[in-house]
């Protein structure tokens, strides 16, 4: 399985989400509801901590409130 990346491109967010879900990136749609894929709050915190460690400003509560898709998260994360 590929290793996660620190850049917040759409592909990087897809890769990081796929890694925490234990899926191959090709098996995860950027428009699929992440909750339906099994992304729970513990895994969201894992992503938040990973992205913070890479120097990105990410807030757990903001991700929870954002559209729960990879495309929605990417738009939120890169809006500022």
Automatic annotation (TrEMBL):
Domain (Carrier): residue spans on this chain: 4-80
PROSITE patterns, sorted: CARRIER
Pfam families assigned to the protein according to its UniProt record, in alphabetical order: PP-binding (PF00550)
Protein name: Phosphopantetheine-binding protein
């Amino acid at each position: 399985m590929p290793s996660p990346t620190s850049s917040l491109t759409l592909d990087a967010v897809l890769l990081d989400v796929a890694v925490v879900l234990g899926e191959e990136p090709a098996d995860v749609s950027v428009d699929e509801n992440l909750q339906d894929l099994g992304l729970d709050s513990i895994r969201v915190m894992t992503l938040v901590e990973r992205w913070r460690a890479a120097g990105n400003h990410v807030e757990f509560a903001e991700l929870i409130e954002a559209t729960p898709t990879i495309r929605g998260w990417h738009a939120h994360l890169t809006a500022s």
